[in-house]
Amino acid sequence: MTLPRWRLAALALLVPLSLAAGLAQAQPAGRPDKVVVAHVPLMTFAILYSAIDNGFMAEQGIQVDLQRVASGTQAVGFLAQGQVDVGAIGLAGGIFNAFNRGFDMRIVATASVWGPKHDVMILGQADKVKSGELKTIADLRGKRVGIAGGTGSAGAYLVDAALRTVGLTIRDVQVVSIANADVPVALKNKALDAGLAGVPFATQAVTEGWAVPLLQNFEPGAATTVFLYSGKLIKERPAVAERFTLALLQGARAMQGAQLTSEKNLAIWTKYTGVRAETIKSSTPLVYSPDLEIFRDNIARQEKSHREAGFTDYQTPVPVEQMLDESFRQKALARLGPYRP
């Protein structure tokens, strides 16, 4: 059968168009789309670093412009104004304040979760523990407790959660805002009675004899770190947001199980966090969801903790759904399918 010329012409046009569409899904052509990402350089955001250095962002036609920040609160204003597209940050009182005020941003994915065991500890100053002044966290009432970011930080939520198990709250201690790296020396010099610290700083303080763990492996399932998208990115460049999320999902799946400490990935973690590969290998790993799952109940607990501690400027709970946008994660899951180890 001979096709009319107009049908042949139409087919000639459709074939290259359909091929181009397929290639665009796999690897967008042309100039890459720039996405500005504010991040705190920690292993909690390893999914992001995997997505970048394992090539998934480039495959999706995205150029990531990383901007280092000290805390999530520092990034909130820039996110709300659209000067930053994505925040790889820890949830804090200031972020819940921003949601309450209607700042235009949404949580799109979880960055990492604490497993049943983890390396974050509440440390007691060694001499005070040896003297019996500090036996458990129940003895921290009125004591100076060092927490990165101070009151209203993600760390403050974690300490509050621990204190509540012994009938105290974060308001029963003197919170001292201090950088994670400074906790060991502050305990050595007795500038702190206790402090919240993780690898490698907790290891250093304990190994040097400056501190003794008062509490370990607390608050399993804590999900205090997220990927937060600006409203500008979501509304004005939704296709870019979709591709960015797809790359994150691919990054998460490229670091499951033994892949987390593969030679290639260890080099990536060291590059972005500055932590030595040996330290990372010997530490208890965080949990990185291969589906970027969002833990609604945990976010609600964090909001409640900050609000009840007086670290927010409002009293009425902010609905969790007001903070989330699951659409990009769901589209990425539809593209890649369910995770299979």
Order of strands across the main sheet: 2-1-3-10-4
- How many domains? The number is 2
| CATH level 3 topology of the largest domain | D-Maltodextrin-Binding Protein, domain 2
Name the CATH superfamily assignment of the largest domain: Periplasmic binding protein-like II
> C-alpha Rg, in Å?
23 Å
The helix count comes to: 15
Mean pLDDT over all positions: 91
Got a strand count?
A: 10
Class per helix and strand makeup = alpha/beta
Coarse morphology: globular
CATH architecture of the largest domain: 3-Layer(aba) Sandwich
Note the main sheet. Answer: 5 strands, mixed
Quaternary: single chain
Q: What is the CATH class designation of the largest domain?
A: Alpha Beta
For this entry, give a set of tags:
single chain; 341 residues; alpha/beta; D-Maltodextrin-Binding Protein, domain 2; 2 domains; 16% strand; disordered N terminus
